[in-house]
Write a structure and sequence with these properties.
Blueprint lengths: L2 H5 L57 H16 L5 E4 L3 E5 L3 H22 L7 E6 L12 H8 L3 E10 L2 E11 L3 H16 L5 H13 L11 H9 L5 H6 L8 H16 L4 H12 L6 H5 L3 H13 L27 E6 L5 E7 L4 E7 L2 E2 L19 E9 L2 E4 L3 E2 L3 E5 L4 E7 L10 E10 L13
Parallel strand pairs: 2-3, 3-5
Antiparallel strand pairs: 1-2, 4-5, 6-15, 7-14, 8-13, 8-15, 9-15, 10-11, 10-12, 10-14
Helix pairs in contact: 3-5, 5-6, 6-9, 7-9, 9-10
The structure holds zinc ion.
Length: 467
């Protein structure tokens, strides 16, 4: 048996995305269209592909275009090398594009930098050259230069990654070709798929594959803050929050809708950047990409309640510039109900989200608070006490975390300040923060030392000294 023959393995043929029948494209190799990555740009593309047109489970016959799609993928390189379309290459990319030379070079540079970052993240160097067709003006391209799938995606203002794999046991050969419009995000999104396919032979389940590709799309150098399109953010904030189970286990597929892509991005962004979950996220992703026996449920099952809460808080405060790493919830904070006269002390940073006060309150009970120290809420801003500005910016505020029916729930925030008493509006654990815009925490400096005790028991708290 020749090696080549034994490599032919129909079971490896699969395609996530649109319904396709598995087929041999030549006698020599089995070709699997592994990932039909699809990105629909809100605003640029009004129409989304109807979910009714696609199901990866469908056994219906594929359209006649399929063969041409895959075959021309391998021939496209030479076809594209005509007037109006230039070929540009760098260490890991071969890009055919009608972009002006300077923009094409800028794209290559950006793709290489992103590839460097994602291959470092996944701990695997990229395998082979990633070939991409990046289209600015379709009329610049000769007819037939793009295969039907690529053409349809580009006409739709989107992109597609066509992957071909040949597997034998754990060994594989994989080649991915990208067709994308030339906006900033789409080539980056598709290049993530292409890297995964060529390096791992697959791009993972839809929620992970598309969520990570969206992260690649929004990637910027040394900046992990939220950078999603405004329409995506507005949609997520204004829609009923989709459950994690729906995102991970819903009957969904690549290319279904930009709305589904938005939820996948939100989940992956949360898991990749929140310090409570990021450490488990990388091995989970690697496990999914290398087909280990891993799952979202296995990895995060014991943290499901915490993730669910932080995910809802993330969506609530979602905005461009939000730094989720600064809002990671401190689940390790030790809370207690104060004994008569006992004082509980906590240090609260200006530059973080809600932080544990360590005080568990009873509904209707009165407590004394005294907050010493100053903080600033902008670069070169004035030092502020816990009272904040006259307009209450930078004021010390509190909120109570309740654990009801197996779900965490944060009650409505209320104002505190330097010194005074509070009546607990509900029972639960008291969390504190500096009242600043959620997207402007990064430039805050300083911290306060906050003392809390039951009112009327023992000596009253003195006012803070340093004012
Ligand atoms: Zn995709």
């Amino acid at each position: 048996m020749t090696g080549r023959k034994s490599l032919t393995h129909p079971a490896s043929i699969k395609r996530f995305g649109r319904r396709r029948a598995a087929r041999f494209l030549s006698a020599l190799v089995a070709i699997g269209l592994l990932c039909a990555g699809y990105r629909d740009v809100p605003g640029l593309c009004a129409q989304t592909k109807s979910p009714a047109t696609g199901s990866s489970k469908s056994k219906s016959k594929s359209r006649s275009g399929d063969d041409r799609d895959s075959k021309s993928a391998s021939k496209g390189k030479t076809r594209a090398a005509v007037a109006g379309v230039g070929n540009y290459s760098s260490k890991h990319f071969l890009v055919h594009t009608d972009l002006p030379a300077a923009e094409a070079q800028e794209l290559l540079k950006r793709l290489e930098t992103m590839l460097g970052l994602i291959s470092k993240y996944w701990g695997r160097p990229p395998s082979g050259t990633i070939e991409m067709y990046v289209v600015k003006e379709l009329r610049q391209w000769p007819q037939g230069a793009l295969p039907p799938d690529g053409l349809a995606s580009v006409e739709n203002g989107a992109g597609v990654t066509v992957g071909q794999t040949l597997t034998q046991g754990n060994a594989f050969l994989a080649k991915a070709i990208v067709y994308a419009i030339s906006d900033r995000g789409t080539p980056q999104h598709e290049a993530v798929h292409a890297y995964c396919i060529q390096t791992f032979g697959r791009s993972g389940p839809v929620w992970y594959s598309e969520g990570m590709a969206e992260m690649g799309q929004y990637w910027r150098t040394s900046d992990s803050s939220v950078n999603a399109d405004n329409i995506v953010i507005e949609y997520l904030r204004s829609t009923e929050v989709k459950s994690l189970n729906e995102i991970v286990n819903g009957d969904e597929w690549s290319g279904d809708s930009w709305q589904n892509y938005a939820w996948r991005w939100a989940l992956c962004h949360l898991l990749a950047n929140n310090s409570n979950y990021s450490q488990r996220f990388r091995p989970l992703g690697l496990g999914l990409l290398t087909k280990q026996d891993v799952s979202f449920e296995q990895t995060y099952g014991d943290m499901a309640k915490e993730i669910s809460f932080e995910y809802r808080e993330f969506i609530k405060h979602l905005d461009r510039g939000l730094r989720i790493d600064l809002c990671s919830w401190d689940w390790k904070g030790k809370f207690k109900s104060p004994k008569a006269g006992g004082i509980i002390t906590a240090k609260i940073d200006a530059g973080r989200g809600w932080q544990p006060s360590r005080l568990t309150v009873s509904a209707g009970e009165e407590y004394e608070f005294s907050a010493a120290g100053t903080w600033t809420i902008s670069k070169d801003g004035d030092s502020l006490s816990a009272d904040g500005t006259p307009g209450s910016a930078g004021r010390l505020v509190g909120a109570i975390l309740q654990d009801d029916d197996g779900d965490y729930h944060l009650e409505k925030p209320f104002e505190l300040g330097q010194f005074g008493t509070l009546t607990a509006p509900a029972a639960g654990d008291l969390y504190l923060r500096c009242d600043d815009k959620w997207i402007e925490l990064a430039d805050n400096r300083g911290s306060l030392t906050v003392k809390l005790k039951l009112k009327g028991k023992g000596d009253p708290l003195p006012p803070p000294k340093d004012k």
